[in-house]
Amino acid sequence: MTQATLTAFFGWMAVIHISVLLFATVVIYGLRGWVADLHARITGVEKDTLAPLYFQWLGTYKLLIFVFALVPWLALTIM
C-alpha cells in the first residue's frame, strides 16, 4: 500500500466514525426518553443509570476515533 492510499483510508475512516458519533449523539440526546426506555427494557438497567453510561460510551468512542483514525491520518498527512 502506498502512503496516499493509507492517508485516504484513515481519512475516510475518520469521516465515517465521526458521522456515526454525531448521529448517535443526536439520537441519544434528541430522543432521550424513547432511547432510555428502550435500553432500560432491553438491558434491565435503571433509566437513571443510563445517562452517565451514554456519556461514558460517547466519550470512549470519541477517544477511540482520535487514537485509531485521526492520529494516524494526521501523521500520514504530515509525512
Structure description:
There is one protein chain. The chain has 79 residues and is an all-alpha fold. The protein has three helices and no strands. The relative contact order is 0.16.
Q: What is the secondary structure topology, with strand pairs?
A:
Layout: H1 3-30, H2 32-43, H3 47-78
The number of helices is: 3
Query: What is Rg?
Result: 16 Å
For the record, give the distance between the C-alpha atoms at the N and C termini, rounded to a whole number: 15 Å
Helix content: over 70%
Q: Beta-strand percentage?
A: under 5%
Give the SSE order as H and E letters: HHH
Q: Summarize the biggest pleated sheet.
A: none
Give the low-confidence spans: none
Count of individual beta strands: 0
Shape: elongated
Could you give a short description of this structure?
With 79 residues, the chain is mainly alpha-helical. It has helices spanning 3-30, 32-43, 47-78.
Task: Provide keyphrases for this structure.
79 residues; mainly alpha; 3 helices
